């Protein structure tokens, strides 16, 4: 980029939180007509840097230059006025409002003394058509699946006619087809001279879409290179400071007797599903978006009512057990949406870990908090949870560390069967390996593990067996030694697979 003047430069950015240096003099540059990928482990400082750029957080020191001019970004409106559009990982849409109302919130078209709803609808359709999606502008956002909500968020950013688009994990809830569409849109923006800052933990996406990559580690800038000058191992080394040659190294546990058995399960969209998970077995659950993976896991866990069928933990029929009894029996579920369905974001790390076992060390109704804290601290250390203390609020943790808090709670509760829904969604390479290690450890201790994932390489590398769902039915059960990308994909699209 020698000789070119960046459209955006963040210089010497520093940010401290109590006990943590989030950013330590970070410099980044963004040029017109490029896709810049920002990489780093969870906790590396990526989100803090983006929040400063968006005016959500103030920097302790440093400067931001836009087109060579020193600018102050005090709030998101300042960023928007400069032509910086943000598409956050955690969607910022307002559920009860319609698509068109969300797309033009605080920028409504007016006519006479009221809102020009016809123009709002026309403009909404225009930008949705640019994305190639058919979404009714009059539909309430809360009624849309998360993938379509993500596309509405992207369409809203397009309405701003921005110069810089900041996309934080934009593909995390999209199908392969939708990701392909998104990348086509990103390339189109780049060809128009727009700039895109792209954050993703998926290495294949980085190499497919990025022109240049900037790596942060521990709040410091490690380096910035053209994408054609780096490889996966090199990026992992920059991110972690160590080589990870076998990210998916699979430890084989001894397979035992039945841990979980599902017989002829019917639950709304789920139709006539039967399978068995043995002790020590890791079963991967594959399927396209909307195939029924989440519905199946929630039905087994008990938060979704079933119409017919039976569920056994070991030899015990738990079909009529409520969720609390299933947890007591050792059935643990870690949901995909950890922020809304798994964690208490405003409570401490300690409170989240002991949420289901608070009375474990109680005598005469009095909780032994000292003993609970000691056990929780051992779990924090064992899972390498990065936090200043047990009393740190969970919302202050990175995505990977939030996920590990849920894993710590599961370990403290006790596990016979572990259900995980997209356990590595939105977390970095190193945190993924730690999640895999956790799964292997649980299996080695004799539990059965089922995990749902949208990432085929992960399913192929980690699973002993892959169950494939299509339109609410199991279309294939493929053992590890016969599982390939092609036959799993074929089953995901409903084709018959011979194994």
N-C termini distance: 51 Å
Low-confidence blocks of residues: none
CATH-assigned fold name of the largest domain: Rossmann fold
**Based on helices, strands and strand pairing, what is the structural class?**
alpha/beta
What strand order characterises the main sheet? 6-9-10-3-11-12
The averaged pLDDT comes out at 87
Coarse shape = globular
The strand count comes to 22
How many domain units? 2
Looking at the overall shape, the CATH architecture of the largest domain is 3-Layer(aba) Sandwich
The CATH class of the largest domain, by name, is: Alpha Beta
Largest sheet: 6 strands, mixed
The total count of helices amounts to 17
CATH superfamily of the largest domain: P-loop containing nucleotide triphosphate hydrolases
Amount of helix: 25-40%
* Beta-strand percentage range: 25-35%
As a whole number of angstroms, the C-alpha radius of gyration is 24 Å
